[in-house]
Amino acid sequence: MVKLGWAVGVALFAGAFIAAGKAQADVIDGNWCAKDGRTMSIDGPQIVTPAGTATTGEWHRHSFAYAVPTGEAGAGSRIDMLLLNENTVRLTRGGTPEIWHRCDVTS
């Protein structure tokens, strides 16, 4: 009985550890790349825009929105992003959607 209890405890701990790792991957934070070579980076409410400007926005676990900073093309317009899956984001700028992917996808 002691061995069975220990084995069950180890299995539960391993399952919880694996689930926690998957949950952390299911968040919009990270480095994102467009097909044309543009990149951006999101870390909580902080973003480095494709033009390289550090600014803040509205962070939610599966979405992010910000106003294009002064000095960038389209300054003042709103950018909305929605996490479609752990490696894909749909970015919408003025009603036009773009698909971005994680830059650092590993298998």
What would you report as the Rg, rounded to the nearest angstrom?
19 Å
Span of the ends, CA to CA? 38 Å
Q: What CATH architecture would you give?
A: Beta Barrel
Count of folded domains: 1
Report what the structure shows.
The chain has one helix spanning 2-25; strands at 30-33, 39-43, 46-48, 54-56, 58-60, 63-67, 78-85, 88-93, 96-102. The protein is α+β, with helices and mostly antiparallel strands. It has a single domain, classed as Lipocalin. A 9-stranded antiparallel sheet has the order 4-3-2-1-9-8-7-6-5, with no helix packed on it. Mean pLDDT is 83; it is low at 6-24.
Write a compact overview of the structure shown.
By secondary structure, the protein is α+β, with helices and mostly antiparallel strands.
Q: How do the strands and helices of this protein lay out in sequence?
A:
Blueprint: H1 2-25, E1 30-33, E2 39-43, E3 46-48, E4 54-56, E5 58-60, E6 63-67, E7 78-85, E8 88-93, E9 96-102
Antiparallel strand pairs: 1-2, 1-9, 2-3, 3-4, 5-6, 6-7, 7-8, 8-9
Jot down its keywords.
globular; nine-stranded antiparallel β-sheet; single chain; alpha+beta; Lipocalin; 107 residues; 9 strands
